[in-house]
């Protein structure tokens, strides 16, 4: 079929060259035909390769499933295969969750990322709600094993993303935030075994994922019983040695102060119904909050001007200084940092800590797929109130050079998966023919 199409295009080119008056129009028609053919071939290729990689998730060998998950992630980063999601949603979710339940640390990390991408591609609605309902329990169980930092980090990211997309009620979000919180800040009680402190990367990821979900809650919908003392906890993190922990804690505090209603993050007065007593307790709470705010302000000021120590990476140090200068300006003057990111010629601008935390989290989660999703993902357009420029290509989306390389390069993970699948099919066919001949049958 491909050879026939090439011959047809060659014949058309020869015919066009005889008529100089029609070069421009015929060239345009030829380009449109070639573009349409390319789009069609790539779409078919995407569907077949995704089918093959999905089949590979049934294989017993863990390394085969890992390679398949890499290929799927690659596919969802380079495009938004909505039709494939519509057809194979249940199968994908089931297989991803199986990998989270039974796979190696690497497979769990890959499957967690795949679940998050599935939720973002599906967008808000019944599918996202189903993902959240089905995935919370296995993710929660997997988080109890803290043997591998990258695995825990991926699980936290996944839980944050699926809750962000599929959580419709404050109670659902609050529950998932508590699951995250327990990873580094377990409740003490008679049946709770105190574990050793989590590695800094896990602490930073918990605070980052927790803050990401907090952006979807306002101060009035928070359960005060869950988050009393969180401001004090984040304040202690500002004194930790790890910069990633300090930055994550600083941004969380900036977000809390931006949301307001600080009493829900601090100790709420309890006790008598006597109004005069409660008024006195509330006055004490306000005084304590003001004192804690002054302490945090001093910590932020010091971190914004910290001198580099021995072995200090200059880039990390500058990042910390810039972040805490922004936090200091916000706490002192009320000005949130403004940022701008170019997406296909359009500017995506943030003007609040809430927006900035959402943007930075999704950039980190989507990695190389961030631009593609921001250009085409309607859910993210709604989140950021962002309207990218529309492409007018006679109803067909242009196939980018990246996508062509993605699906045509012999070195791409998807192409390797397809090659393995085809080789397997040929081996099965050869075995079948061998058995056929052994029974004494001849081909007609």
What is the ordering of alpha helices and beta strands?
HHHHHHHHHHHHHHEEHHHHH
Q: Which value, in Å, is the CA radius of gyration?
A: 27 Å
Largest sheet: 2 strands, antiparallel
Number of helix segments? Answer: 19
Structural class: mainly alpha
Distance between the termini: 26 Å
What's the pLDDT, averaged over the residues? Answer: 78
Trace the largest sheet across and list its strands. 1-2
Helix content: over 70%
Assembly category: single chain
User: What proportion strand?
Assistant: under 5%
Topology summary:
Layout: H1 2-16, H2 23-56, H3 62-78, H4 82-102, H5 105-122, H6 126-143, H7 149-166, H8 170-184, H9 200-214, H10 224-227, H11 230-237, H12 243-259, H13 275-304, H14 314-333, E1 339-343, E2 346-350, H15 353-366, H16 370-376, H17 378-384, H18 401-408, H19 413-438
Antiparallel strand pairs: 1-2
Helix pairs in contact: 1-2, 2-3, 2-19, 3-5, 4-5, 4-6, 5-6, 5-7, 6-7, 7-8, 7-9, 8-9, 9-12, 9-15, 11-12, 12-14, 13-14
Provide a descriptive summary of the structure in words.
- The protein is mostly helical and 444 residues long.
- Helix content is 70%, strand content 2%.
- A two-stranded antiparallel ribbon has the order 1-2.
- α4 (82-102) runs parallel beside α6, α5 runs antiparallel to α6 (126-143) and α13 (275-304) runs antiparallel to α14.
- It starts with a helix and ends in a 6-residue tail after the last helix.
- Mean pLDDT is 78; it is low at 1-42, 268-280, 392-412 and 436-444.
């Amino acid at each position: 079929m491909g050879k026939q199409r090439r011959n047809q295009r060659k014949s058309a080119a020869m015919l066009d060259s005889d008529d100089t008056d029609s070069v421009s129009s015929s060239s345009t028609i030829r380009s449109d035909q070639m573009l349409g053919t390319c789009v069609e071939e790539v779409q078919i290729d995407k569907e077949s390769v995704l089918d093959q990689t999905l089949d590979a998730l049934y294989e017993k060998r863990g390394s085969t499933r890992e390679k398949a998950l890499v290929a799927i992630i690659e596919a969802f980063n380079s495009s938004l295969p909505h039709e494939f999601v519509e057809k194979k949603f249940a199968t994908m979710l089931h297989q991803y969750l199986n990998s989270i339940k039974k796979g190696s640390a690497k497979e769990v990390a890959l499957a967690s990322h795949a679940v998050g991408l599935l939720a973002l591609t599906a967008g808000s609605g019944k599918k996202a709600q189903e993902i959240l309902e089905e995935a919370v329990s296995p993710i929660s169980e997997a988080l109890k094993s803290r043997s591998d930092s990258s695995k825990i980090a991926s699980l936290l990211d996944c839980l944050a993303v699926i809750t962000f997309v599929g959580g419709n009620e404050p109670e659902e979000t609050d529950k998932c935030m508590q699951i995250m919180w327990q990873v580094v800040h377990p409740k003490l009680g008679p049946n709770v075994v105190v574990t050793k402190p989590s590695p800094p990367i896990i602490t930073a990821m918990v605070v980052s994922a927790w803050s990401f979900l907090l952006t979807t809650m306002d101060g009035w919908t928070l359960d005060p019983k869950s988050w009393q003392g969180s401001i004090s906890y984040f304040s202690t993190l500002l004194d930790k040695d790890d910069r990633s922990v300090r930055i994550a804690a600083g941004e969380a505090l900036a977000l809390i102060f931006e949301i307001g209603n600080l009493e829900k993050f601090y100790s709420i007065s309890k006790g008598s119904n006597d109004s005069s007593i409660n008024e006195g307790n509330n006055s004490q709470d306000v005084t304590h909050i003001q004192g804690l705010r002054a302490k945090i302000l001093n910590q932020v000021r010091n971190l914004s001007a910290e001198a580099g120590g021995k072995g200090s990476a200059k880039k990390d140090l500058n990042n910390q200084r810039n972040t805490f200068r922004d936090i200091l300006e916000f706490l002192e003057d009320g000005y949130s940092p403004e940022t701008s990111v170019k997406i296909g010629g359009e500017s995506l601008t943030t003007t609040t800590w809430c927006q900035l935390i959402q943007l930075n989290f999704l950039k980190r989660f989507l990695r190389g797929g961030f631009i593609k999703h921001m250009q085409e993902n309607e859910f993210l357009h709604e989140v950021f109130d962002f309207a990218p420029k529309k492409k007018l290509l006679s109803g067909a989306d242009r196939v980018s050079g990246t996508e062509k390389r993605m699906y045509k390069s012999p070195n791409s993970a998807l192409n390797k998966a397809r090659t393995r699948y085809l080789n397997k099919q040929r081996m099965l066919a050869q075995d079948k023919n061998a058995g056929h001949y052994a029974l004494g049958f001849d081909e007609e």
